[in-house]
Amino acid sequence: MLASSVQRSKPTPYPSKARSALIRRAVVVLLVIVALALITISFRSPTAGALHDIQGAGSTALRPFQIAATRVAQPFRDAYDYFANASSAESENTVLKRRIAELRLEVLHNRELAIKAQQDERLLHLEQGSRFPADYQAVNAEVTSFPSGPFAHNIEIAAGSSSGVRLNSPVVSGDGLVGIVTNVEPQTAVVTLLTDPSTFVAARDLQTQIRGMLHTGPGGTLILDQVPKALRVRVGDALVTDGTHNARYRDLYPYGIPIGRVSHVGATDTAPFLQVQVTPFANLGSTDVVGVLVPKKPHR
User: Fold this and answer.
1) How many CB atoms lie within 10 A of CB 180?
2) Phi and psi of 228, rounded to 5°?
3) How many domains, in total, are found in the chain?
4) 206: domain range?
5) Using CA atoms, how far apart are residues 78 and 215, in angstroms rounded to an integer?
6) Does residue 13 sit within a domain?
């Protein structure tokens, strides 16, 4: 039996690739023709009829499958919408943050311009007022450098000898005396402030006409020195520069420049003079524009 031969059936030949492609094309063409025929019949047939009934029945039969497909796809659609909205919100948030930063910078810039405009207005008011020294004219300049620390008492301004600024010229802001020019270049100048230990100003109390010497005292405060204890100085009195009393020895500061206001008056048993503390009118650390007082005629 093992040696006997078994006759096998002849294998069925597979269709060729060309035949399979032809069948697929025929099926596609048939489906297109059927679809076109159904569309034509649907448009030309009346609104009620057998075809529409068949369509309605098909829609009714497929309705559960549509609902199921919608419910299955809904979580994926929600997830897509969530991530799309999150990405859009993040992009909008970035744009808003950038815009807020730009608006903050704009507000700060406008605030600086407003402060500078106020200082310009006060300086102009001082220069046009009746107390401005008649023999002087003002060279206005912006402050380009402020004190760099608690022990620095100089500022730099954007005006120099080419603008008429001279050494030892008094410097004012719209509020009062700032200091004196101690170094001059063609385009810039250095101003030493009232708070510098080397600065001394002859001052007068407008209310009592008491005179004294203004300079920096212990702790960096301004004091009106050399006021006898027998004289009376009150808190709130305004001080101005005392000016020149001898034409041969002119004072560096002309008469009448506002200096400050008396903030404290004290006395000790051993000291011959009153202890008078003064708060300057000018904000020496944040003045953006100043006026340099230059004589209209050179002093002889």
Assistant:
1) 22
2) -55, 150
3) 2
4) 136-295
5) 77
6) no
